[in-house]
Amino acid sequence: MTERLLAGGWVAWMALRAEQQGMRTRPMVVVVAVIQPVALLFVVAGTRDLTPGEATVTVSAVVLTAMWSATVWTAGGVLRRERGYGTLARSVTSLYSPSLVLFGRSLGATVYSAVGILASSAVVVALLGFRFAVPHPGWLLVALLVVVASGTALGMLLACLFLVTRHGLAWSGALIYPVFILGGLLIPPDALPVWLRWVPALLSLRWVHEFVVAVSGGPVRLAPLGVAVALTAGYLLLAVVCLRVAVDAGRRKGTLELV
Amino acid sequence: MGVPAVEVTGVGRVFGRGRHEVVALRDVTFEVAQGQILGVLGSNGAGKTTLTKILATLLEPTTGTARVFGHDVRRELRAVRRLTGVVFGGDRGFYGALSGRDNLRYFAMLAGVGRRTIRAKVDDALAGVGLTDAARRPVETYSKGMRQRLHIALGLVAEPRLLLLDEPTVGLDPVEAERLRTSIAALRRTGVSILLTSHYLLDIERLADRVLVIAQGRVMVDTPATEFARSAGFAATVTVQGRGPLPARLDSYGMTVESVEDQGGVWTARLRVPDWGGEMFQQLSAALADADVLGVDVAPVRLEDVYALVMQRLAQDEPARTAQDEPAGAAGVDRR
Question: What residue stretches are annotated with the ABC transporter domain (chain B) (predicted)?
């Protein structure tokens, strides 16, 4: 059992490392992990005097917005890129579970993006001289871990969805702004039409944002974080099922291109 | 001998549906014994790569069964993958931004090479294909031949018991190609079974124990390599050049006159001889005794000639075969 766990961990780690090595040369990573958060922070907060509470909420929203873009463009494109390289079939028909390989790659992409986003945001925050209200730094760290986990799971799910359609690239672009809006990252969810208000409830980033807003200005409310974790688990489960279906269908239809 | 390395029974594969249906394989049946090298010949679109993909568990057969060392490729994927190494040629199949070593290390891990041995095995595989010096360079800087060698290293790194080689010498210069053939021949001595598809008949000629010819998805010929060479019906082509009258007895002793050309009083006769040994040499000498012979050249029959003849015969038989297939349905394949 221990040996299997170790082997599984090693596979995920190798996949993570391979993805991160590949990300160094992708210009899109610079766009989503550096240019976007920096531009957003300057636009939203560059000319305003923010209270520590406002600063926390603003930076949190910007980081989460950038994380969503990163998830769609980096982790979400993992399998589409594999098909482009001609490595898809080898990656999903190895001795190990394709979900494990995809998890490692998606985690690698998400962590790489998250580090970029946090680092570039930190530089801007230092330049603008923001002061934060962080009464519960431990819980902020937990929220960050949930964001990474959620981005990984959502990235896996998107990667599978982008694999079964020929228009993955178009979908990537089409998904960005609707989620910004529906997730309450650009406008408050209350401003949405009534018939659309259930949608934000399905987006984990919206719950993380609610949690961060709450902990920055008052007592810790665990319910939003719990919902975010549950949604993350749901994304992960859906991704595993979706990948299995996609790989089986690929083997039946002959759409798993090796080269 | 034990269980065959590969056992394919009645395998068919259909792509698409309705008007877009393409039958890639029809009722394909053959075996590869353990330690044997099977050469698969066929023109483009004959179904060779489809067959290789089915054995590599990348594609499910529509009908029939395929087993690798007794394991069903449809149901026992893990067991089949553990025993099989695949080499698909071409420029793609790697992460261009990663080095050759990192690519190999990653795919070796996926192929089941353990943590403790992976470094040594990757280094050995790189050395085996002469890529040690280029191991740290990104694959996007590799030449076509280097990528092909990396593909081969990838197929061998997990030390498979069955190696599926799809056009392994494509893109290699003659020296590299010969070096690869020597490596493949050496693998046979270690007991590895090999299914080798190639357009290059030299690969098959040098390496294969058996030859399988596929045309339009069907197995047309399945025979030992030596028998295949004999199926041409002649052992060698003798080209004789001379002056003056053409000898009268050139088509005796089982020899066949393939062609005779005359240019400015110098004739060139091409003869096919049923075997090439001392007796045939004496008979040829007797046939040419009265002629003013300028030169004689003997070319033993090559697989290329045999293959061309086989394909020619198949093309002639095709109308009859197509008519035979019609009643069984559009494609003649029993679909699931």
Answer: 6-241
Which B residues, 12 through 51, put their C-beta within 8 Å of a C-beta on chain A?
13, 15, 50
Partner-chain residue, chosen from A7, A87, A96, that has the shortest CB–CB distance to B94: A87
| Band (A81; pLDDT cuts 50, 70, 90) | confident
A178 inside domain:
yes
Q: Is the pLDDT score of B329 beyond 70?
A: no
Residue A258 in any domain: the answer is: no
Give the structural domain span for A163.
2-253
Q: Which of the two residues, B7 and A170, has the higher pLDDT score?
A: B7
Tell me the chain A residues in contact with residue B105 when contact means C-beta distances shorter than 8 Å: 14
pLDDT tens per residue across span B169-196: 877 778 878 888 888 888 888 889 999 9
Report ipTM (2 d.p.).
0.82
Domains of chain B in sequence order: 6-230 (3.40.50.300), 236-300 (3.30.70.260)
Q: Which of B59, B73, B115 to mutate to test the interface with A (most CBs of A within 10 A)?
A: B59
Say whether B92 and A7 touch across the interface (CB within 8 A): no
Give the per-residue SS3 of chain A. Answer: CHHHHHHHHHHHHHHHHHHHHHHCCCHHHHHHHHHHHHHHHHHHHCCCCCCHHHHHHHHHHHHHHHHHHHHHHCHHHHHHHHHHHCCHHHHHCCCCCHHHHHHHHHHHHHHHHHHHHHHHHHHHHHHHCCCCCCCCHHHHHHHHHHHHHHHHHHHHHHHHHHHHCCCHHHHHHHHHHHHHHHCCCCCCHHHCCHHHCCCHHHCHHHHHHHHHHHHHHCCCCHHHHHHHHHHHHHHHHHHHHHHHHHHHHHHHHCCCCCC
**Considering only alpha carbons, which residue of chain A is nearest residue B104?**
A18
